[in-house]
């Protein structure tokens, strides 16, 4: 079966040459295992971290071994009592067209309740990240102002909508006018800022947030975030969810100047890792599914087609080529 391995650890921005296509044998099925045919593969910015060997909250990928990420697959053979041929499952699986997996590493997903790809986004890891990051650390209150960066992406587009459900003034930051239009007209954000065409981001934040910023949901880090933090309110909360603008940096950043703003505002800034909230995942999925069913949440996806497009789809995340969740359909 075709497999995608990590060939080299990217230096700076990853390249197609960091990936290697090989073919490998499919193992023989043992008791408690299933044979899977990959249907959808999730590509995610956090995979960049696993491609380097720096210490992190999750093990680095090994060189010349398959990359793994969120995958939806169809069961095509089963030696498991829990799964039958034809079932669809989600799991953290290898970038392979076909593979054998242990039954306890998989969760059944129901294609009659939602499109399969949704289980990688709104009803999967990125939806949970939006919901739990915002509620557990952001602690939003009705009437407050929420700013979200990476606002047109998988996590950000859901964060903003949950902010609206909870009664906040919501401002999104994204990389194009088209994305800014989308978050306002499709997802109900109150204001949007295109960071690529805005000269003075701090002024733009001040204008979009006349009452200051109470919650900042940070997906991008770097200069954009610094501009937001200059406008934070007393007892504000920042969710450090992602920092995509600096994932490819090869040098340590210069010192930042936001600390005085955090101090004088008694402002909280806390890192968030979705895997640390595993006990809250089932309730989170239930809430997201309910809002989705009630029509209170909408989502969009960018779907690439074909196994061979997986590495490029991953690279495209760093160019902002996606709207909503980026997935690859096989
Ligand atoms: P997205 O769907 O948001 O895709 C990435 C987006 O980032 C791009 O579309 C692009 O949008 C933006 N971007 C790329 N480069 C830059 C840059 N240099 N400066 C500013 N924006 C940039 O991805 P996800 O929703 O999956 O993830 C969003 C963030 O959340 C990531 O940082 C990710 O690592 C993090 N994350 C963290 C988790 C956790 O547990 N902590 C779990 C899941 C995600 P644009 O055109 O607007 O620039």
Automatic annotation (TrEMBL):
The keyword S-adenosyl-L-methionine does not apply. GO terms for molecular function: oxidoreductase activity, acting on the CH-CH group of donors, NAD or NADP as acceptor. Keywords: Membrane, Oxidoreductase, Transmembrane, Transmembrane helix. The chain crosses the membrane at residues 116-134. Pfam families: ADH_N_2, ADH_zinc_N. InterPro entries: ADH-like_C, ADH_N_2, ER, GroES-like_sf, MDR_fam, NAD(P)-bd_dom_sf. Residues 12-328 form the Enoyl reductase (ER) domain. PANTHER family: PROSTAGLANDIN REDUCTASE, PROSTAGLANDIN REDUCTASE 1. This is Eicosanoid dehydrogenase/alkenal reductase, MDR superfamily. It comes from Psychroflexus torquis (strain ATCC 700755 / CIP 106069 / ACAM 623).
């Amino acid at each position: 079966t075709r497999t995608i391995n990590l060939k080299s650890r990217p230096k700076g921005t990853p390249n197609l040459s960091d990936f290697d296509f090989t073919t490998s044998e499919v193992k023989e099925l043992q008791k408690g295992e299933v044979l899977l045919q990959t249907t959808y593969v999730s590509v995610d910015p956090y995979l960049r971290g696993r491609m380097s060997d720096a210490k992190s909250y999750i093990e680095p990928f090994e060189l010349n071994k398959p990359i793994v990420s969120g995958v939806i697959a169809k069961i095509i053979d089963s030696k498991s009592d829990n799964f039958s041929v034809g079932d669809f499952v989600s799991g953290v699986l290898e970038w392979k067209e076909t593979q054998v997996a242990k039954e306890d590493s998989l969760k059944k997903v129901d294609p009659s309740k939602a499109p399969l790809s949704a289980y990688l986004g709104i009803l999967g890891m990125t939806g949970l990240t939006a919901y739990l990051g915002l509620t557990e650390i952001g602690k939003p209150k009705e009437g407050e102002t929420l700013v979200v960066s990476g606002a047109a992406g998988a996590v950000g587009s859901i964060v903003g909508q949950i902010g609206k459900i909870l009664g906040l003034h919501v401002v999104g930051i994204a990389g194009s006018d088209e994305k800014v239009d989308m978050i306002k007209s499709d997802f109900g954000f109150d204001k949007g800022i295109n960071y690529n065409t805005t000269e003075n981001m701090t002024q733009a934040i001040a204008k979009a947030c006349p009452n200051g910023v109470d919650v900042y949901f940070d997906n991008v880090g770097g200069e954009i975030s610094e501009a937001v933090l200059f406008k934070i309110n007393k007892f504000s909360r920042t969710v450090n969810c992602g920092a995509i603008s600096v994932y490819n940096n090869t040098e340590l950043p210069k010192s930042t100047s936001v600390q005085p703003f955090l101090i004088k505002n008694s402002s909280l800034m806390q890192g968030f890792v979705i895997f640390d909230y595993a006990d809250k995942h089932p309730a989170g999925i239930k809430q997201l599914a309910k809002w989705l069913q009630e029509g209170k949440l909408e989502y969009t996806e960018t779907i690439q087609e074909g196994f061979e497009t997986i590495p490029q789809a991953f690279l495209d995340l760093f160019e902002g080529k996606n709207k909503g969740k980026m997935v690859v359909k096989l």
